[in-house]
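Hi there,

I know you've been waiting on this one. I reran it after we fixed the sequence typo, so this is the corrected version. Both the input and the resulting structure follow.
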Amino acid sequence: MIFHEIPSQKTYKQIIEQIIALMVSGQLKNGEKLPGERALAEMLGASRSSIREAFRTLEILGILEVRQGGGTYVRSFHIAPFINTVAPLFLHNVDIMGDMMDFRIMLETQAVRTAAALPDAGAVEGMAQAIASMASEDPQVAEQADIDFHRSIFSATGNQVFILAGECLSYILHTSIHDSRSKLIEDQAIARQWLHEHESIFQAVKSNRPDQAEVALRSHLTGVRSYILRTAAPQEDIG
């Protein structure tokens, strides 16, 4: 791999650009260890603080993995670390959450039609496993299973941009519902209803019925949208 010295007035952003460019060109591969801070600072003509700042940013984005005492490694891009960082910005903005949910409905209805029209065996199996786990009494297991179910729908499209967009929305919205998850668990009627709705979506996909899959998914997500906005809305002070 070849790093180029950068002018001293440049910031950590240029370091990030070089690292990403090396990944895109294939000179830096998944699992490969980067030079240490001191060595990289000398190669780039930059300060070690700038190197650390670049590493921290790329770690937040899920592009690098910094192992304590073990160096810094390239990793396959995963959206979760970034989304978990920015998701709190959306938690108390009901208008944005509503708009995002509307966009998700538009996006995922197309994804589920694709999944039902040309069912992928792996995606169908992923949906089946998620439904089985969704019935768990452990709220964390049930929540992750819900995420996995919808991720399987997006995965079935085979379109990487579609998959990434769906994953972004899924993490943000499920993070926003996380704080209200205990209420959902306590309300067994809603929990059973949502499980049944997921099963309806799954059966439509498995049986190659795109129209039915879209109707089932739209109905489910519309109900989820109402639940999210209702539980996210500020409670009136009655004291």
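Quick highlight: Residues 117 and 208 are 6 Å apart (CA to CA).

Best,
R. S.
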